[in-house]
Amino acid sequence: MAAYSTSIKTSGLHHVTAIGGDPQRNADFYLRTLGLRLVKTTVNFDDPGTYHLYYGDQSGKPGTLMTFFPWRDAPSGRHGTGQATTTSFSVPEASIGWWQEHLAATGVATSRVRNAEQEDVLTFRDPDGLQLALVAHPQGDPRDPWDNGHVPAEHAIRGLHSVTLSVSKEDATVAMLTEGLGLSFTASEGNRIRFSAGDGGPGALVDVLVTPEAPKGLVAGGTVHHVAWRAPDEPTQAAWRQELVERGVHVTSILDRQYFRSIYFREPGGTLLEVATDEPGFAIDEPLLELGRALKLPPWLEPSREQISHLLPKLNLPSENNPEPR
Ligand code: ZN
70 CA distance to ligand 1 centroid (A)? Predict the structure, then answer.
């Protein structure tokens, strides 16, 4: 890529979307085991017979969101290059031990390491084999957690920490991250190169893992579908899109995702990326206290509500997902 003076500068991760298996098992794991809040129950707008479940903090702020297309008969994918192979969440430093015990008590095997950034890292898998990590950053994380979930607020997940992108070679991916998203190089250790967005820190980090010997990944059950980055608003997103087009990046038109607007493009290493707006957010079609409780459909799918509801298995949510008004 030529040296551009970039104006694209994302402030960090918006959400990570993965493909899951059974929706109830998926909801039980992310709500009960990890203590997140279900902030929207909707469908995959491109495949309305499948749920799209959004987990996050109380209001589903950008940077706290992990979303799933849970699909009972999803064939298993393969972890490998051209994928986001690990999705990491941020937790307080003093809480890693608590999480280790909590996950062990629920039958989840973990492994604990300290990385080159002096972060305490607990890695494990979700019920569909998706590779996850809880990371305690030495500088802490100022974000407030969802304080009414299944996990005590003092230990609760603060939001996304980072994603790891696995690539067979790094040059073109690095160019896309730095010039196409405005990230900066932060550090490198062995075959891992870290980049940060905006002010950096949890929620604004991506690690590029260079593994030429690894198999090529296959996106299906238990793998990440795409990684979304933040744009503050629609005019900024439109300007960034234009800039990507001028650089020869194949980028989709701006799509209405109801809770944000999205564009998608692939980084040269193979991972599908998205730029999503911070606005309008999840309170656009239901009150904050009721987030996630009812099936919400965008206006263009509302006429098919009956058929769609028929196709979707019923979900049983923990009562604290929707607290009664105090
Ligand atoms: Zn997305």
Answer: 14
